[in-house]
């Protein structure tokens, strides 16, 4: 029982990170109808920037407080993601208005390549560490209720907490601010939003920016756990089944989908894996998504797509 | 005029259609006789296009049935409809934009092609012969519609009026027994409308094709159609010869009273 | 003034429906084939054959397959690598498990197996499209990655899916030297390109394009989406599968699943975007471009860097390659969605009218 719960909780923690990536997908898809394949590249790019700035900036300024260095690096990386968002809108999206989804999808693949190339050119392609002082030691909880208790990684716990706070902030941003309302309006109907004077181009920059910040947070958490390296870019591929499961247009769907996939992967790897050879984590998520595509293409929480003739 | 209006070929019985609670068509019945030109008119949103979509199986009505040459269909689908000789044009031209005029018309011959994929891949015997025979048929349609000069132009590059004509051509290439026309003259200038009217009448006259059409231009409808159905808010409010329909008080109020 | 069709009148539909209706084009293609079959083996050294020409031929074949699905039928795929893998490993199994099976047959059976798997993973296309379909094809990719790595039966119990073939021959002709491999692949590609062209210019091709351009209208005209889509998946996977078999058997001779990873799938998709969606010719342009670009960059970037006194490392080159690929994809999607093939045909159009502008 204890082992099962540990696996479950490990899955939930991993799932929280998938949720963060999926959240980036959903934000951009809702506001611009673009499925952003570059989300993984953005995570890599942001994490690289963060990791390197945290080293470079103290060296330039002669700082020796790691907290200050990390804060400045985080802000600088955030600013960089804003520049990325602006450039993407200027150079790509603006020229592809009203194109089909598949075309936009392929364009974001192009963006992903450019971001990966530029990122590794500027920041280098080694494995970097991000050290934001996350606690590394595991901790026992619920020793009273189980024999042996549950072994939880403190780092995972903090990460999940950060992710939860971010999601809450985003929800507030969407529900309570004027910009958030404009974003929701654009998501519902591009043309109607435009006709009441919401500037589409600016909205896109904002939403890509928000997605950039989400990518940054995901990148920092992931980076501090596993180090910043090229394979971070592939988290986009891990996040894809999550959004299919949760529904492309639903923020709660992204969160819950991420958790389901995280838990499903871990449980299937532990209990099903040994029977059929192991290493099934990646395709398990995809086959689950495939089942959803066949029987419920709009996902758990997405809006139903009706084709009109 | 050799054309003679025959027996009922298409009979719609108590058709009701709704989209998630919104009623598009309520209990509609009417029939179409062989060789006639049957018009469906009505204000915007009256359910005219839905009606055509029901006839050729794009929409499935919740109630009612379609009787085609005595055969009952409670579930029509586009493929069955096409097999049964129903073809149509679209309100917002639905041509295959990446193909040229000949290829668009050739798709209309699709159901008549017998050769299989392997034969086609090797461009072998039957496939090759068929391709030539159908090309000849398609050229007949091209001659009929007077679009020889654009036969190799990708349809995306054609002006609106010509696209409408190619759309008609593709439907004709199927050699249909029933032709559904969804606003064939919408957005055309007077000259183009006259051309289109001439083509419709010629099709009806020369090939004996039964025609069901939706049109907004009252003058045209009254001029060319044999019988008219009037829809309003998804209900049938009139049915009969053009003159009778024009005198129907309910129709007058729907057109004059309600909308203006 | 040479490139004119003046005076070439067509008196039958057969003449008008030829693959190359213009006489100059016919001569050009005959010349090109003669040069490819006779000239190149005499002129070119082994390195060029092995590093550029053989990969180009095989990837062209794969690109043809991807183009049938994506360019002609409008169904996006991010899983082409999976079908290459299925083709390669299926052909391998036929090759080693059936004693004395001719090589040609093994390769074709590999392709047919890929076609069958293609149909299975094409089923979601009946319900979903665009991004959703992309996910379904990715599912195929990750699943086959895993199968060939972890299920030992498929790889004859080889560790980590690494297998090899040797002593290949066709009707007593040993396919061993690079020239033989080149000629074998060239012959194969010529036949398959002709098949692809024939399909795209006959009824089945029109069905695919109709589904791509306007699926509702296609259905109304009597095209069954089920048949059109699944046949596109089958034919495409057949082409891609045989390309995978050739890649494994002829080009690599020993390989492991990583040769057909998701990166390969992306690469194939980029080939058809850059080369030209919905164009047979474009598949060749795209393959040539993607095979040559990295080699060209390797040659020229250090030289250009040298001019400005910068040394560019190998890592730098691979980063530059990523950036250039990405930028080109975006460029083509924005400026010329029909790729190099369209630039080519626009050029020809101009040439026909030259020196007049219209």
TrEMBL record, chain A:
GO cellular component annotations of the record: plasma membrane
Stretches that traverse the bilayer: 12-29, 41-61, 67-89, 101-124, 157-174, 203-222, 242-263, 270-295
Superkingdom of origin: Bacteria
CDD domains xref list: TM_PBP1_LivH_like
Pfam families, alphabetized: BPD_transp_2 (PF02653)
Location of this chain's protein in the cell: Cell membrane
GO molecular function: transmembrane transporter activity
Keywords assigned by UniProt, alphabetized: Amino-acid transport, Cell membrane, Membrane, Transmembrane, Transmembrane helix, Transport
Topology of this chain in the membrane: Multi-pass membrane protein
Membrane is among the record's keywords: yes
Single biological process term from Gene Ontology: amino acid transport
Family under the similarity heading: Belongs to the binding-protein-dependent transport system permease family. LivHM subfamily.
Protein name from the UniProt record: Inner-membrane translocator
Lineage of the organism: Bacteria, Pseudomonadati, Pseudomonadota, Betaproteobacteria, Candidatus Accumulibacter
TrEMBL record, chain B:
Keyword ATP-binding: yes
ABC transporter domain span: 10-258
One Gene Ontology CC term in the entry: plasma membrane
Keywords: ATP-binding, Cell membrane, Membrane, Nucleotide-binding, Transport
GO MF, one example: ATP hydrolysis activity
Pfam families assigned to the protein according to its UniProt record, in alphabetical order: ABC_tran, BCA_ABC_TP_C
Name recorded for this polypeptide: ABC transporter related
Lineage start: Bacteria, Pseudomonadati, Pseudomonadota, Betaproteobacteria, Candidatus Accumulibacter
From TrEMBL, chain C:
CDD domains from the UniProt entry: TM_PBP1_LivM_like
Keyword tags: Cell membrane, Membrane, Transmembrane, Transmembrane helix
Main location: membrane
Gene Ontology CC entries for this record: plasma membrane
Pfam families listed in its UniProt record: BPD_transp_2 (PF02653)
Residues annotated as transmembrane: 27-44, 50-69, 76-95, 101-123, 130-151, 171-196, 230-250, 270-295, 307-334
Domain of life: Bacteria
UniProt subcellular location: Cell membrane
Membrane topology: Multi-pass membrane protein
Protein name: Inner-membrane translocator
